[in-house]
Write a structure and sequence with these properties.
The complex is a heterodimer of chains A (87) and B (360). Chain A is an alpha+beta fold and 87 residues long. Chain A has a single domain, classed as SH3 type barrels. Chain A is 20% helix and 37% strand. Chain A is built from one helix and five strands; from the N terminus they run βββββα. In chain A, a hairpin with a 2-residue loop joins strand 4 and strand 5. Chain A is elongated, with a radius of gyration of 17 Å. Chain A starts with a strand and ends in a 7-residue tail after the last helix. Chain B has a domain of 145 residues: 3-Layer(aba) Sandwich (Rossmann fold), CATH 3.40.50. Chain B contains 16 helices and eleven strands. In chain B, strands 2-1-7-8-9 form a five-stranded parallel β-sheet. Chain B has a four-stranded parallel β-sheet with strand order 4-3-5-6, with helices on both faces. In chain B, strands 10-11 form a two-stranded antiparallel ribbon. Chain B is globular, with a radius of gyration of 21 Å. Classes of the chains: A alpha+beta (87), B alpha/beta (360). Chains A and B meet through strand 1, strand 4, strand 5 and helix 1 of A and helix 1, helix 2, helix 3, helix 6 and helix 7 of B.
Chain lengths: 87, 360
């Protein structure tokens, strides 16, 4: 139930400070477009950001650099860390 | 998205497996709390490469599995009421109460809509003004903000024929109850990814400190999970118990303030009945009086029936991490995915369903 898929934002509507302004983003996942609610997203997204979506609601705005940094740390762990540090 | 594939890359996973092997220098038992983690661990074959000494046990984090039999019976009774249609997440459809499931109710004419989002349930209400739509709320911190936003939207749009039956649950109280159980000996927690994206990594700090537990927040890809297990093993080896967050691309230290504010506007803590764990004080969320017009329990004066759990079913023990599915006398005999007795076999994220699917 808690796997939430990241999707790329192609359009943002509504005002982050006004709940009644129909806060909606259009997102794209592998060519399929859909609309998601932004009522409870942590950071108001921009076009090009990725959203983690759960049950039709975006819950987190994911910047590409954040994901890349996460990956880089994993690569460092896999390749760079001496074994003696892991004991 | 491209970087998701990279988190699944074998060239990244292979050295992590080797590192994990070396990191486990003391025996350790790790509880994966979240049902989505349970499935990701099975799906990615991680159980098959676990070093000797590292034991993974599943916790109470599958929301469908911990929905109590009295709640299931009340859900079914609600679906059977004239003029009502209930909307649910799909996983709930086949969960047995004591007298059948919502699937059985649907077969005899009850209106049961499976929806992707609570907002879809609100739309069904708008499209069907002569019926009252009740969304049966089941889930943890990840799901609750969307339900809260839906209730606020219903109020804003002045929708009168929509309400929510909340069995929303929070992770803190059951985890404290479990960790206080002397029979359950665990050294570390694989903390849930998307629950933590709402409540923040800091949420786990008191548990790490009070119970001397290794805590690592993790994502759902192979590399995420292996990385988290390495860090858990290192914490246990060095007895340096703390919270580490390996899922920084989705989880911040503070969490999602907008979502938590929305939840606090609509809900307040309440005692909640958990399948297998019983009633745990303040482990659930009920709708505040201010929004009582959208509270199905108030609107329809629901009293939970007193019922017994299915005889012989060990879901309760399994949800507490005290037993594994093959130890249940019903597992793979009377209880199968096609004919489930307990909720852990029904839900796609249930521990029994996972053991059955992956033949363990």
């Amino acid at each position: 139930m808690c796997i939430a898929l990241p999707m790329r934002v192609t359009k943002v509507e509504g005002n982050p400070d006004d709940f009644t302004s129909n806060q909606i983003a259009t997102v794209d996942a592998d060519g399929i477009e859909q609309q998601v609610r932004l009522d409870v997203v942590d950071i108001w997204p921009n076009v090009g950001d990725y959203l983690i979506i759960h049950a039709g609601f975006a819950i987190h705005t994911l910047e590409e650099k954040e994901a890349k940094l996460n990956l880089q740390l994993l690569r460092e762990l896999a390749e760079g860390m001496p074994d003696e540090l892991i004991s | 998205m491209k970087h998701l594939d990279e988190f699944r890359d074998a060239s990244l996973a292979k050295p992590l497996v080797a590192k994990l092997e070396k990191a486990v220098t003391k025996p350790l038992r790790v509880m994966e709390i979240c049902g989505s983690h349970t499935m990701a661990i099975f799906r990615n074959g991680i159980r098959s490469i676990l070093p000797e000494g590292l034991q993974l046990i599943s916790g109470p984090g599958c929301p469908v599995c911990v929905t109590s039999a009295p709640h299931m019976d009340a859900f079914i009774a609600m679906a059977d009421m004239p003029g009502i249609r209930v909307a649910i997440f799909g996983d709930l459809f086949r969960v047995p109460g004591t007298k059948g499931s919502l699937s059985n109710a649907s077969s005899r004419g009850a209106k049961v809509d499976v929806v992707y989002s609570p907002m879809d349930a609100l739309q069904i209400a708008k499209n069907n003004p002569s019926e009252h739509v009740v969304f049966l709320g089941v889930g943890f911190e990840t799901t609750t903000p969307g339900i809260a936003a839906t209730i606020l939207a219903a109020k804003n749009d002045n929708v009168k024929n929509f309400s929510v039956f909340s069995t929303q649950k929070t992770m803190g109280p059951p985890m404290k109850a479990l960790l206080s159980d002397p029979d359950l000996k665990i050294d570390g927690l694989l903390c849930p990814g998307h629950v933590s994206s709402i409540i923040g990594a800091k949420f786990w700090e008191p548990l790490a400190a009070d119970y001397k537990l290794a805590c690592v927040v993790a994502g759902f890809e192979t590399a995420d999970l292996l990385n988290a297990l390495i860090l858990l093993a290192r914490q246990v080896a060095t007895e340096d118990f703390k919270v580490e967050n390996t899922y920084t691309r989705a989880v911040s230290y503070e969490g999602n303030a907008r979502a938590m504010k929305m939840v606090d506007e609509i809900f307040e803590p309440a005692d909640m009945n958990w399948r297998g764990l019983g009633v745990i004080p303040n482990s659930g969320l009920k709708i505040r009086e201010k929004y009582a017009d959208f509270d199905a329990e108030v609107k329809f004066d629901i009293t939970l029936p007193e019922v017994d759990e299915a005889k012989g079913c060990m879901c309760g023990q399994i949800l507490k991490g005290l037993n594994i599915p093959p130890e249940c006398p019903l597992f793979a005999k009377r209880c199968t995915p096609a004919n489930p007795i307990g909720p852990c076999m029904v839900s796609s994220e249930g521990t029994c369903a996972a053991y059955h699917k992956y033949g363990l």
